[in-house]
Amino acid sequence: MKFxxxxxxFTAMYVAxxxxxxxxxxxxxxxxxxxxxxxxxxxxxEQHIRTIATSKVGNLHVKAEPLDPRLHLANCINxxxxxxxxxxxxxxxxxxxxxxxxxxxxxxxxxxxxxxxETPVLILNRAVTRDAQLNGLDVIVDTRRVxxxxxxxxxxxxxxxGYSARRDLAAGMLLTxxxxxxxxxxxxxxxxxxxxxxSGISVMADAIALSDGTANSRIRVxxxxxxxxxxxxxxxxxxxxxxx
Length: 244
Hints:
Shape: elongated
Largest sheet: 5 strands, antiparallel
Number of helices: 2
Low-confidence stretches: 1-31
Oligomer: single chain
Order of helices and strands: HHEEEEEEEEEEEEEE
Number of strands: 14
Mean pLDDT: 86
């Protein structure tokens, strides 16, 4: 009986020692990881984009592209530095750099990040031709999930004021600033009113525009009576102002 009791005590002590050794190994592995977590790098890249994005309209959706699981980078004890490569812009697909400068780990990695924004956008409700002036009747406002930042798209009908189509545009298109151009108010060869202002006095004269002009742009005109050429600012579709 004593012999059996001794065997049981010895077995219990042996199992306890093995369990303790396993716990020590597990604890050691938990503290020291030989390789950098790729999931952590992806999360840091996404957070970096959210931090530097200047869009204040709509909800930002950021997703880093998966990294190759075969990639083994030395573990960075300090938090890796995230940065945008020189010349990079925030577009629908942006590259984010990750850098580690630890004494035991020095590496640089580039991570692709996809950006989308859920935002109100202006959508053409009819086809328009080049140079057609646009207004609120030409568009509908709808919330869409679009590639890139909301600043890539027009989001308010007030942004159409003073602009016309740069080219033919089809119905259903989401409007971007690049699709528009300032509306030409005065055309070359058009007869206009030249308004000369000096010391609170305004003098009007008929003149001929020598070039096209958009709102607040500067163009040259020729006084019909004197044939003198002057440069003025386009005030409206019929008036060019000269401040003397």
